[in-house]
Amino acid sequence: MEDTSKLKEAMFYESVGEGRVQCHLCARNCIIAEGRVGACSVRKNIGGKLYSLIYGLASAVATDPVEKKPLYHFFPGSSVLSFGTVGCCFRCEYCQNWHISQVKPGDYDLRDIGRPETIPSRIRRDACDGVAFTYNEPTIWYEFAYDASKIVKEHGYYTIFVTNGYMNPEPLRELAPYLDAMNIDLKCFRDELYMKMSKAHIQPVLDTLVLARELGIHIEVTNLIVPEFNDDPKDLKNLSEWIVENLGPDVPIHFTRYHPDYHYDAPPTPLKTLIQAYETAKNAGLNYVYLGNIMKTEYENTRCPTCSTLLVKRRVFFVERLYQIKEDKVLCPKCGTEIPIVDHRRKVI
Ligand code: SF4
Predict the structure, then answer these.
(1) Residue 144 C-alpha to ligand 1 middle, in angstroms?
(2) pLDDT tens, position by position, 4-49
(3) What is the pTM of this model?
(4) Ligand 1, residues 13, 23, 139, 175: which to mutate, most atoms within 8 A of Cβ?
(5) Hey, whose CA ends up nearest to atom 4 of ligand 1?
(6) What is the pLDDT averaged over residues 105-125?
(7) Which residue in 197, 100, 130, 148 sits closest to 346, CA to CA?
(8) Whether residue 289 sits in one domain with residue 162
(9) Is residue 85 located within the same domain as residue 166?
């Protein structure tokens, strides 16, 4: 039998007979035969037990501005130590990170980043305020991300997931005490399009958005607008209205520009389409709408929804905070409106 001494047994699976296991980490709920991997290619059934093949193994480690995730209402201007590995439970035709998301662990030169206990000292060394699991889908790296997040939080730093939102409710509930913020990708607003372009369903993503909010995790939504896929104004209106009704008008949304990549070859998203999406979301009642990858600062800045005072000025990743903080609350300095920005700098150990 394959040597499992260097592997980590997976969380959230059960035996379902005849040597098969069922993984319940994400909404795919894969049934995996002996010797096979799940749809994400990083969880393998060895001898009737499920193992993570990527515990402590990274494809990328970098220091990023938190705005790059993108998170605009969470410690603006801070730096975050960012980790990614390989694999994904989605199959997006237009994936912008396909070189790491659509490969198997054996096909990539993964770097051993050591035990989770080493991460707080790396955060300190790189002058960061927290850690992000990003670049590929972090859900499928759950065991490492969970252990690392627990330790990082014990030291007073923040934790972030940049995710497709396909995690099942039970793992999310278990992770929630150690997870501060999520940027969740809501790819479109029709199930048949989700299936066509990502080989996934929309409902688990919507459920994750609602549950994450209920669990007190700071959330922001990203919608990459891909021409001839999810740029229908009616769908963008429905998507925005759903957010207002189910998550509230203060959840930030980022419409970002697509560039041709992987199997999809449409031209980059026209600026006109992005501006139309911005107007649609504003008209639907969303207070904080941003456009990404377009280099137009007026769509990156944060303004007070009551009096339009400039609160956060952004130019690419340069950030100037112009709001007031009183008793851990972020306020507009002109009219006093409370702004939903998390920015209570913590005591770290
Ligand atoms: S995490 Fe991987 S193995 Fe588990 S259900 Fe999702 S795709 Fe399947």
Answers:
(1) 15
(2) 988 999 999 999 999 999 999 999 999 999 999 999 999 999 999 9
(3) 0.96
(4) 23
(5) 23
(6) 94
(7) 130
(8) yes
(9) yes
Judgement on whether residues 205 and 137 belong to the same structural domain of the protein: yes
HSE-CB for 20 with a 13 A CA cutoff? 10
Residues 240 and 269 in one domain: yes
Q: Where are the alpha helices (DSSP H) in the chain?
A: 98-101, 119-125, 142-154, 169-175, 191-198, 203-214, 233-246, 271-284
Q: What is the full DSSP assignment across 264-303?
A: B-PPPPPHHHHHHHHHHHHHHT-S-EEEESS--GGGT-EE
Which pLDDT does position 345 carry in this prediction? Answer: 65
Asked whether residue 111 is domain-assigned, the answer is yes
User: What total of structural domains would you count in the chain?
Assistant: 2
Tell whether the model's pLDDT for residue 346 goes beyond 60: no
197 and 145 in a common domain:
yes
Beta strand 289-292 with 253-257 is parallel
Residue nearest to atom 3 of ligand 1 (CA): 38
pLDDT > 70: percent of the chain: 98
Query: Same domain, yes or no, for 277 and 158?
Result: yes
Instruction: Band the pLDDT of 201: cuts 50, 70, 90.
Output: very high
22 within ligand 1 shell (Cβ under 6 A):
no
**Nearest protein CA to atom 6 of ligand 1, as residue:** 26
- Asked if residue 89 has its Cβ within 6 Å of ligand 1, the reply is yes
Residues 31, 130, single domain; the answer is: no
Tell me if 54 CB under 6 Å of ligand 1: no
Q: What is the pLDDT of residue 260?
A: 78
40: Cβ below 6 Å to ligand 1? yes
Do 194 and 145 share a domain, yes or no? yes
Mutate to test the pocket of ligand 1, among 11, 21, 30 (most ligand atoms within 8 A of CB): 30
Residue 38 CA: nearest ligand 1 atom is 3
Mean pLDDT of the chain: 95
Q: Residue 107, Cα to own-chain centre: how many angstroms?
A: 24
- Asked if pLDDT for residue 1 goes beyond 80, the answer is no
pLDDT of the residue at 348? 55
